[in-house]
């Protein structure tokens, strides 16, 4: 592309999500069934009180382009949350990737689900190779400065969480494998239960009262409440009949 005089602004010359690859390119740690189910549970139960849903992006295995100087460098977090960006309302507007220089907002939280092939990089134990892109840890901690980084190892049932303090991630204490995020009025923790017909230990959001219910759990709660109301009405009707009062007169 030829230089113009005056130069065109970066918004006009930088590649957009339509120009950048959105598929996997030689990636290790491809998503498996667990990754898909776990990401669904995180998304379904993530209901912050401090942000409207239309201003939150919840993404799973969506390319994250982070460096305008190296426009083909990207990471692909297992799950991440961005606050203060508009979510798509029309199918044609759904993102192909998340491009930092277009969006202007870095993720608030990144979750990586450990795989044997990615464990060392996820935990920041690998060194950057010469002339190669930075590691995940470097990108999240030093380049994007993502406030929260969460790592869950389902093979060891081990949850780790880190918060950016100054220029470095510091480990968060996790009593009972949970931690609270005041910014969201929500917490993340490990929950033993069944989701999508699969029983295990899952990473899940909770609020001040309890685990945030899934849509299926909400429906079951409504069914139970309706059943309890019906039973109370039946008992009241039976009591009125015992007094020779027709309960239908109160209908």
Topology:
Blueprint: H1 10-13, H2 33-45, E1 56-59, E2 64-65, E3 74-75, E4 79-83, E5 98-99, H3 100-103, E6 109-113, H4 119-122, H5 136-143, E7 148-153, E8 158-165, E9 168-171, E10 178-181, E11 186-195, E12 198-206, H6 215-242
Parallel strand pairs: 2-5, 6-7
Antiparallel strand pairs: 1-4, 2-3, 4-6, 7-8, 8-9, 10-11, 11-12
Quote the beta fraction: 15-25%
Order of helices and strands: HHEEEEEHEHHEEEEEEH
Distance N to C terminus: 78 Å
Query: What general form does the structure show?
Result: elongated
Number of strands: 12
Average pLDDT confidence is 88
Radius of gyration: 24 Å
Strand order of the largest sheet: 1-4-6-7-8-9
Relative helix content: 10-25%
Helix segment tally: 6
The low-confidence runs, each spanning 5 or more residues with pLDDT under 50, are none
Biggest β-sheet: count, sense, barrel? 6 strands, mixed
* Secondary-structure content class: alpha+beta
